[in-house]
């Protein structure tokens, strides 16, 4: 597809699934965000909100799986958008602008995802310390920020390791994730002396916290599912490090989403049966309702051990997120989309990984953490941007696939066939609906402290990227560009002055080539 092979293909179908599954870190992600359904509908949102969101997310995952099978490259989302947004072989139309926005929201969404994961990890550690000290220890913001930086550095070190080691780590991590998830679920079912009735779990709706009407509160409660079921598209970004990526990629995406949906629902179901006082859980000194639920249900000794498992799962989730984000940065830089692109697209000769891109990710996430000095609401806005930005980046190539790119799409081994258009339409409609919904404040009435500033951050990103493209980037950024000389997908930025480059598909025995004619 036009790119020189720069990575070793050390991932196989199993390790790629492990990577995609670890990106979502179901046990830790559900534990970190369970406060959303608890405060926006209670049991009904916890149990049914998850399944509602999961059903629509599956349509997005199926479309990404089809795109990944057709075009398995580290460029992923914005490469898909590039190939499917051209008007014709001779007219690239708005393609550079489409690719530009897709890449920017994807990069910033992934950087924000790393920040949100490591910040949650920090809060989990301090919640564990608070439990150890029986509430005597209350962390300051400076202590939280220091531990947050430490985790970012640790994840940067892990992300700089050779691909073979990263694949082995992820194989171990998925085992830890599964074992930890099963242990926590079993303990929440087996140990509590008191538990809620099935009628309460499946039918009780409590909307006394949000201030929104019942319907919209239910929608906002699904942020728990959308934040957890986010990042599975990272399997696309590891394609150039995986053998038989056209088959392994879609399998990893679909299987990881299905596994996370099932595991996440069982965790939420167990927690809903166990939590007998939602008010106390939400107002707990631990700062995280899930550890309060485990503590009151299983006792202090068990809670210390179970919460440590949650911490370990989140620790490895953070390392997976750094790896995935570094590949997104690398791919965009390889096509000249970032300042100092030659530096960020460099691949270390020893590790065969983009180490510079890893540490740019660490630096970007660290800077996002500094927003906490301004206001906690500003910090929350950045973290909310993670799922919003990533799902916008998912939606753009899917929309291109079912509209202008329908005739240009070359199916891979996994194809939805005639179902692509209806499934893609559902996916796009869901993304538009949920992104707009998550830009609203989560509580009413709105105050400066509970305002959802994600709309401000997203608007600033779009304006910044748009102005940059209009003023300067349109002169030199033309989308993906070749790194080898012949038989490539070549969307070039060069050309004879006064003439326009012509683009055409050239068939070959091995694959479809896209070359400049």
TrEMBL record:
User: Does the entry feature the keyword Membrane, yes or no?
Assistant: yes
Q: Does the keyword Transmembrane apply?
A: yes
The terms describing its cellular component in GO are: membrane
The superkingdom listed in its UniProt entry is Eukaryota
Major place of residence = membrane
User: Which keywords does this Swiss-Prot/TrEMBL entry list?
Assistant: Membrane, Transmembrane, Transmembrane helix, Transport
Give the location in the cell: Membrane
InterPro entries from the xrefs?
AA/rel_permease1, Amino_acid_permease_CS
How is this protein positioned relative to the membrane? Answer: Multi-pass membrane protein
Listed GO MF terms: transmembrane transporter activity
Q: Return the Pfam families for the record.
A: AA_permease_2
Q: A GO BP term, please?
A: amino acid transport
Alphabetical list of Gene3D superfamilies matching this protein: Amino acid/polyamine transporter I
Q: Which residues cross the membrane?
A: 12-35, 47-80, 92-113, 145-166, 172-191, 253-275, 304-324, 358-379, 385-404, 416-440, 452-471
| Full protein name | Amino acid transporter
What species is this protein from? Phascolomyces articulosus
């Amino acid at each position: 597809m036009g790119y020189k092979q720069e990575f070793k293909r050390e991932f196989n179908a199993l390790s790629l699934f492990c990577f995609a599954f670890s990106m979502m870190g179901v046990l830790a992600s559900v534990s970190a965000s369970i406060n959303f359904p608890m405060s926006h509908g209670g049991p009904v949102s916890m149990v049914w909100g998850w399944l509602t969101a999961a059903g629509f997310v599956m349509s997005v995952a199926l479309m990404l799986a089809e795109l990944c099978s057709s075009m398995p490259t580290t460029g992923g989302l914005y490469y898909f958008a590039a190939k499917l947004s051209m008007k014709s072989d001779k007219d690239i139309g708005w393609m550079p602008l489409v690719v530009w926005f897709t890449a920017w929201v994807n990069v910033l969404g992934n950087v924000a995802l790393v920040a949100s994961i490591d910040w949650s990890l920090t809060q989990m550690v301090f919640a564990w310390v608070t439990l150890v000290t029986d509430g005597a220890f209350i962390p300051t913001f400076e202590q939280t920020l220091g531990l947050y930086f430490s985790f970012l550095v640790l994840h940067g070190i892990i992300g700089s390791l050779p691909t073979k080691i990263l694949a082995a780590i992820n194989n171990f991590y998925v085992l830890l994730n599964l074992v930890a998830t099963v242990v926590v679920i079993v303990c929440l079912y087996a140990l509590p002396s008191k538990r809620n009735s099935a009628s309460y779990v499946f039918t009780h709706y409590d909307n006394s916290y949000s201030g929104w009407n019942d319907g919209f509160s239910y929608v906002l409660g699904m942020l728990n599912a959308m934040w957890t079921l986010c990042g599975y598209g990272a399997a696309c970004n590891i394609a150039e490090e995986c053998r038989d990526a056209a088959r392994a990629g879609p399998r990893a995406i679909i299987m990881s989403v299905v596994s996370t949906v099932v595991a996440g629902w069982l965790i939420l179901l167990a927690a809903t049966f166990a939590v007998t006082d939602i008010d106390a859980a939400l107002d707990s000194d631990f700062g995280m309702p899930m550890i309060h639920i485990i503590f009151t249900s299983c006792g202090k000794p068990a809670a210390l051990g179970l919460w440590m498992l949650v911490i370990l799962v989140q620790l490895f989730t953070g390392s997976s997120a750094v790896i995935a984000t570094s590949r997104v940065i690398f791919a965009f830089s390889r096509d000249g989309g970032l300042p100092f692109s030659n530096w960020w697209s460099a691949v270390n000769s020893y590790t065969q990984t983009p180490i510079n891109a890893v540490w740019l990710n660490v630096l970007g996430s660290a800077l996002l953490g500094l927003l906490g000095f301004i206001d906690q609401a500003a910090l929350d806005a950045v973290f909310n941007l993670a799922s919003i930005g990533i799902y916008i980046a998912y939606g753009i190539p899917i929309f291109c696939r079912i509209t202008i790119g329908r005739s240009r799409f070359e199916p891979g081994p996994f194809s939805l066939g005639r179902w692509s258009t209806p499934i893609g339409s559902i996916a796009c409609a869901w993304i538009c609906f949920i992104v707009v919904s998550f830009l609203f404040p989560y509580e009413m009435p709105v105050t400066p402290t509970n305002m959802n500033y994600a709309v401000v951050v997203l608007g600033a990103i779009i304006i910044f990227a748009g102005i940059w493209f209009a003023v300067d980037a349109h002169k030199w950024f033309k989308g993906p560009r070749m790194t080898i000389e012949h038989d490539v997908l070549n969307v070039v930025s060069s050309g004879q002055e006064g003439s326009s480059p012509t683009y055409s598909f050239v068939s070959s025995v091995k694959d479809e080539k896209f070359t400049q004619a």
